[in-house]
Amino acid sequence: MPELRPNRVKEKLAAGECAVAIQGLVTGDMIDQIGPTDADAIWIEGEHGAIDFLDIGDQSRACDLWGKTPIVRVNSHDYGLIYRTLDRGAQGIVAPHVNTREQAEAIVRAAKFAPIGMRGMFTSRQGIGVTDYVKIANDHSLIIVLIEDIEAVRNLDEILEVDHIDCFFVAPGDLAQTMGHLGEVNDPEVQATIADTIKRIRAAGRIPGALVDQSSVVRYRDLGARFFLTGIDGWVSAGINSFAATMNGG
User: Fold this and answer.
1) Number of Cβ within a 10 Å radius of residue 21
2) Domains defined for the chain, CATH in brackets
3) Phi, psi for residue 170 in degrees, rounded to 5
4) How far is CA 243 from the centre of its chain?
5) What is the pLDDT of residues 166-194, one digit of tens each?
6) Global pTM?
7) Which of 87, 85, 139, 145 has its CA nearest to residue 115?
8) Which helix (DSSP H) or strand (DSSP E) does residue 43 occupy?
9) Are 143 and 164 in contact (CB under 8 A)?
């Protein structure tokens, strides 16, 4: 009898370890290309990208092949959108613009079966052949909420009281925008707010997440973040530019 595939990110976070998700892969073939790497998860972009429900099945299958956790960022808190995303094969969902305790609670209700929530009764592509899927899915589904508005920072203590959320991810772009620093994520006030928010999440016994690159990952790790998102575009550009420089005698 098939068993439910392990959720690599959820297991690593529960064990006190760090986990990294890669953003910017838009097909199953692209996911296959980084399959042999040590990345823990693939961040499937359903808020800003071209990803649709049909794509989630193919991309999550590629993640399954390589033991990566398929995490889908949805574009709203819609109840049906969240559980349908999990039905299609996501092992985790990322909810944007979570600014209040009530919003966080609604996301948990949509993503978890009873008695925790009221996720629509159906299996998932992950649960095909797993006869007790609806009874064990809650222990394997990952919930990440984005703290990306200054309103969320102001309401952070109440949001952090909501159980069954695996990671509170501090997203810099929208945070900067709502602080009056459009496009200026490196503004000192924005960076200070990000650092303070990560510390507050950690102090509450919760798991912070952060957007990082090679130059910032150690700083955010030392602040307390344990879930990291990094985009493939920067790595590709750096590799191509380095090769071109070497080719031209640089």
Assistant:
1) 26
2) 8-247 (3.20.20.60)
3) -90, 110
4) 31
5) 999 999 999 999 999 999 999 999 999 99
6) 0.95
7) 139
8) strand 41-45
9) yes
